[in-house]
Amino acid sequence: MYINKAMIYGNITRDPEIKAIASGSKVCTFSVATNRVWKDKAGTKQEGVDYHNIVVFGRMAENSAQYLKKGSSVYVEGRIQNRSWDAPDGQKKYRTEIVADSVQFGPKSGGGWQKPATGAVENKDAETAPTIDYPEEEINPDDIPF
């Protein structure tokens, strides 16, 4: 059995770009920065950043391009893919990217929440969120029909 799975959570480093490919399907590309912190042998705190190229297809690509922007936090699950091509100057170019299976938007600045890119995105502020009106009387378990 072989496994090719990538899971990252970070911040988008540039606004997503969306294009249509020959089949008419949409493809969205952006990059995500993930931070890491560790202590070296001397016990000194070190920090580093890794950058990941993300590719998203279909409806999820359209939603990503519409709702994500530079600085947004995002959780991406997908597979790692390596590509190569010949550049116009004759050099061989290589790129490692994550082809997304799932993109979930992180919290917006100013509070609220967002659904994954596969559905509609909503913003609910705590002050405007509807409240549930619970009944005053006790619920009898015998009255529940299932």
Structure description:
By secondary structure, this protein is mainly beta. The chain has one domain (about 5-110): Nucleic acid-binding proteins (OB fold (Dihydrolipoamide Acetyltransferase, E2P), Beta Barrel). The chain has one helix at about 60-65; strands at about 5-10, 15-20, 25-40, 45-55, 75-85, 90-105. β2 and β3 (about 25-40) form a beta hairpin. The chain is extended. The two termini are about 45 Å apart.
How are the elements arranged and paired?
Blueprint: E1 6-12, E2 17-20, E3 26-39, E4 45-57, H1 58-67, E5 73-86, E6 92-105
Parallel strand pairs: 4-6
Antiparallel strand pairs: 1-3, 1-5, 2-3, 3-4, 5-6
In short:
This protein has one helix and six strands, in the order ββββαββ. It is extended. With 146 residues, it is mainly beta.
Helicity level, as a percent range? under 10%
Biggest sheet strand line-up: 1-3-4-6-5
Q: Please identify, by name, the CATH architecture.
A: Beta Barrel
Order of helices and strands: EEEEHEE
The coarse overall form would be extended
Mean pLDDT: 83
The N- to C-terminal Cα distance equals 43 Å
The portion of residues forming beta strands comes to: over 45%
Low-confidence stretches: 110-126
Total individual domains: 1
CATH class: Mainly Beta
CATH topology heading: OB fold (Dihydrolipoamide Acetyltransferase, E2P)
- Count helical runs: 1
Number of strands: 6
